[in-house]
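Q: I'm building a small set of examples for a reading group on sequence design. Run inverse folding on the following structure and report the sequence directly after it, with nothing in between.
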């Protein structure tokens, strides 16, 4: 199964990288518009959101808008013990390059409250809510240990597949937002 997942990850990373810059920029705007139109997000008070890196769906503008709306926001930080924690976020100046060069908070005091919404990355998704992550298990472990609330994945339409290799411990998402549609699982 792991070999199959790794093959999928390699292909999905390549597909995502091949999206031309001008189209990626427009797709990011469309994904942000679709996400911000969700009532579940509008009603949410507390949100845990990934900080985009590389060719991921851009969350920087989304985070700025959520802060502008007065949401209580947290972002991920990978600890020395190889766990992911949700850390309060208020300002971009509070972040530094962390695990794999991804921006994360300078401090590690985790928020352990329930979140109304969790916005998650991934390499691939199915319309059934299956999620193929990057292979380190950070999000699946965090989902199992915390109350993530509504789990929303951000994805380019090219990352949606009919089937993906998944295992029993892989946690599904509730909603997938792409540039073309909102998939409610």
């Amino acid at each position: 199964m792991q070999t199959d997942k790794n093959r999928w990850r390699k292909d999905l990373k390549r597909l995502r990288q091949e999206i031309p810059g001008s189209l990626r920029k427009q797709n990011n705007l469309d994904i942000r518009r679709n996400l911000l139109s969700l009532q579940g997000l509008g009603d949410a008070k507390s949100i845990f959101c990934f900080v985009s890196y590389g060719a991921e769906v851009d969350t920087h503008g989304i985070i700025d808008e959520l802060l502008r709306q007065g949401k209580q926001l947290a972002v991920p930080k990978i600890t020395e013990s190889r766990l992911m924690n949700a850390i309060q976020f208020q300002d971009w100046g509070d972040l530094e390059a962390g695990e794999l060069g991804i921006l994360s908070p300078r401090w590690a005091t985790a928020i352990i409250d329930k979140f109304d919404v969790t916005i998650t990355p991934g390499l691939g998704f199915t319309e059934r809510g299956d999620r193929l992550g990057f292979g380190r298990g950070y999000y699946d472990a965090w989902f199992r240990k915390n109350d993530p609330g509504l789990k929303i994945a951000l994805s380019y339409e090219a990352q949606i597949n009919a089937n993906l290799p998944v295992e029993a411990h892989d946690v599904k998402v509730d909603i997938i937002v792409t540039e073309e549609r909102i998939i409610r699982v």
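The mean pLDDT is 93.
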